[in-house]
Amino acid sequence: MRVAIIAQVKVLREGLTEILSQAGVTVVLQTDQLTQDVLTSISNNCFDAVLVDASLTDHLQLAQMILEHLNVKVIAFGLSTDENDIRACINAGYCGCVPMDHGREELILALRDAVFGTGYFPADESTTKTFQVAESGIFSQREAANLFRITKRETEILRLLGTGLSNKQIASELHIEVSTVKNHVHNLFDKLNVRRRSEAAVLARQFRL
User: Fold this and answer.
1) pLDDT digit string (tens) for 15-43?
2) What is the dihedral of CA 83, 85, 91, 96, to 10 degrees?
3) Domain parsing of the chain, residue ranges
């Protein structure tokens, strides 16, 4: 796994680099600000994720800027467990948040869940995976869609898929080509980290998509 770190304090960046390297994670880039050169470097080096220090006043804008230009996972660290802060991160496009009172094990788990799973967010007094958070009803429908970065059209297809319709039937319902439906279904499987239509349908119900 290849990651970049954006944090203002150098000793913090260096400490995180050491922790992650011990876990087999390669930190290719560490910086205190997001510039065009940094975006280009992240793009050219095929990064899997970017860790962003939530103490930065513009960290929400940083996440949005990264996601506008790059196809990577963005995780916030040093975040409070306040529900409003978590919601703000989800709406900005973060796929994981690590609270300021959590340690190295949670950081590594959050990184791996965000990159290879569905996301990682704190709920109540402890950090839980998004499946557990979804069941608690903490996310609205729009926030769940933002969490998985699902488009409006993909949401429509997911709903129809959940009713048991075939690709051909979905295409007829939405007045689009079958090949277009297939492409959307493929993208949904990737974003939801599922392999079967039934799994996607179950996840859609859990998140009320």
Assistant:
1) 999 999 998 899 988 898 888 888 888 77
2) -90
3) 2-137, 150-206
